[in-house]
Design brief:
Mean pLDDT: 93
Structural class: alpha/beta
Number of helices: 8
Strand content: 15-25%
Number of strands: 7
Shape: globular
Largest sheet: 7 strands, mixed
Distance between the termini: 25 Å
Low-confidence stretches: 1-5
Strand order of the largest sheet: 3-2-1-4-5-7-6
Order of helices and strands: HHEHEHEEHEHHEHE
């Protein structure tokens, strides 16, 4: 995730000083149906090979990092939240993993070596980025990827009926950290403008059994498109 200390913005201080991390028990249950669904869908977009080096951008509680660790040569989890990285490092200490590390850094300017990753996973990240940050993060992804490397994007679709109800305060509460939902068209435009070639772009259904079946049937309608899934490849240097 990225942040900015401008007044009124959801920034690093918000994630580290608010109750954001305290109210997310469903996100730290690595074996929950929701998390198993996320990983299954992320792997359906692109399954990295044994020799690949992966960056989990906006790693949060490390779900993707830990799920992919046994599949790849090395994986790095990056988040700008001190609390998120501390949680991940504490979890890592419980596991026998030597190919995993976590860093606290800004996704707009990570300080990592260029051309150093085969895959970057941005799962549930783009909705947390303000418009002025989004292009910088995508450009940084391109800088960090090897030629031919891939960027995997997984983000909520604002047009889904549950998101509409939530963001209008009708059902559940809106998430204050979801500061800028991207449409499929915007995600594609951001990637193309940064020099990526799109390999996959589609909508995915929810993890809830009954709703999932309904969405699969009606996914051609915007109201039933739960998630946006995009895979892009870096071309050139």
């Amino acid at each position: 995730m990225t942040g900015d200390q401008n007044e009124g913005r959801v920034d690093q201080a918000y994630y580290d000083q608010s109750e954001y991390h305290d109210g997310a028990a469903h996100l730290v249950d690595f074996d929950s149906p929701f998390q198993r669904y996320r990983i299954e869908k992320i792997l359906a977009l692109y399954e990295p090979g044994r020799e690949e080096r992966v960056l989990d951008l906006g790693c949060g509680w490390g779900t993707v990092t830990f799920a992919l660790a046994h599949r790849v040569r090395e994986i790095v989890g990056l988040d700008f939240s001190v609390r998120a990285v501390a949680f991940c490092e504490a979890e890592l200490a419980k596991r026998e993993l030597t190919n995993v590390r976590f860093i606290q850094a800004d996704a707009r300017d990570s300080g990592l070596e260029p051309d150093s990753f085969d895959l970057i996973v941005a799962a549930d990240l783009l909705e947390h980025l303000y418009p002025d940050d989004s292009r910088r993060v995508i450009d940084e992804c391109r800088r960090l990827l090897k030629p031919g490397g891939r960027l995997s994007v997984w983000t909520p679709h604002r047009g889904h009926f549950l998101e509409i109800l939530k963001n209008n305060g009708i059902f559940l509460k809106p998430d204050p950290t979801h500061v800028d939902y991207k449409s499929m068209a915007r995600v594609e435009r951001l990637l193309k403008d940064a020099g990526f070639v799109l390999e996959k772009a589609y909508y995915a259904e929810s993890h809830l059994p009954v709703l999932r079946d309904i969405e699969r049937t009606l996914i051609q309608l915007s109201l039933f498109r739960r998630r946006i899934a995009v895979l892009a490849r870096k071309v050139g240097r």
